[in-house]
């Protein structure tokens, strides 16, 4: 086992815990976990045989559902909506990060293109002599 009780190579999203272990880690009864799964609050991964496998992220979400229900008095429908909105916010933040990186790359490319254009101007310039001449204009009288 790696640090944190996870198998080597597993991360917080790897579904590794059977329902009895997930129940113990979350402080909830296994039947409660099944009910949350049916209601779409916490949907664990599944094995080929259909058994539930919970990740550390699932365990944290189970604890959050319990906290919102017990401490804040939010009903399960409200908790489901909160989870959906938090997921939406996370997705939007991720997209903003992607767009920010794309914009920075576009600015850098534009600056490089402008620098290349300015550099090409210097090659096309023709040197001229810097002389000052004075021309006096005298209009003809009619």
List keywords for this structure.
142 residues, mainly alpha
Give a written overview of the molecule:
By secondary structure, the protein is mainly α. The chain has helices at residues 19-26, 30-38, 56-70, 76-124, and strands spanning 45-46, 52-53. Helix 1 packs across helix 2 (30-38) and helix 1 crosses helix 3. The protein is rod-shaped and about 110 Å long. The mean pLDDT is 89.
Task: List the SSEs and their pairings.
Elements: H1 19-26, H2 30-38, E1 45-46, E2 52-53, H3 56-70, H4 76-124
Antiparallel strand pairs: 1-2
Helix pairs in contact: 1-2, 1-3
CA radius of gyration is 34 Å
- Rough outline: rod-shaped
Number of helices: 4
Q: Percent range for helical residues? A: 55-70%
Kindly state the mean pLDDT as a whole number? 89
Query: Based on the structure, what is the oligomeric state of the protein chains?
Result: single chain
What order do the helices and strands follow?
A: HHEEHH
The largest beta-sheet arranges its strands as 1-2
β content, as a range?
A: under 5%
Q: Poorly predicted ranges (pLDDT <50, ≥5 residues)?
A: none
Quick gist of this model?
The chain has 142 residues and is mainly α. It has four helices and two strands.
